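Please check this record.
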Amino acid sequence: MLTPMSPLDSLFLIGEAPERPLHVGGVQIFQPPEGADARDIRDLLDSATEVDFDDLAPRMAKRPRRTLTTLGQWAWEPDTRIDLGHHFQKEALPGPGGDRELMQLCSRLHSTPLDRSRPLWEMHFIEGLSGGRFAIYTKMHHALADGVTAMKMMRHSMSEDADERGMRAPWQRRSPEESATPDGPGRGIRLVDLPGTAVRTGLNLLGEVAGTVPAFADTVSRAVRDLGGAMSVSAPATMLNVPISQARNFSAR
């Protein structure tokens, strides 16, 4: 069953290119609780991958689809054969396991586009950090969730109470009521609905684009007249002002 994708979300798929991947990523570094180590956390997350499709969060179990039956529009399709082993992966850092090695690994992971034939997210458990620490790197396509939404999902999987147990992994359904949210199964696309859906999507898209034109024109005008603003037509030549490639580099302090 296919469900329509919003015009804004579909733009993130349309505008993507190998040198311009449109996913967001985040890195969290943790210290295991007293008496535990990274292997205990790894085993805990491994057990959370042994779930049925019905126990998955709807947002995390859908993949993008565009076919003749959708009139070329992007839609969401439940991936009933989702392989959580592909989405949740384990990594280990080479010694000494510092921030530099962690950022090098995350740079490599972030440079790889997400597979559109699968749900558009990955989570990597990274052990080997100095001091017994471990990290989690999460990558999610912007069509699926923005950075704020992704952080909320991570927050719901954690607790400020050190004694609380039974927290759900980000890919697990939090409650039966979650299926009633906009990310749930929803109403599928019917062939008779497609012309109207295509027209509404086109009008919404035109409205969103038209709304940005005045702001963009004002920004260009201010830049040309050297009145300041976020955009400049005469940016200085620096090491950062060059065409981008698919490779990524990150540093952290």
Q: What stands out?
A: The mean pLDDT is 82. Helices lie at 7-14, 38-48, 84-87, 99-110, 147-156, 194-224. Residues 194-224 form the longest helix (31 residues).
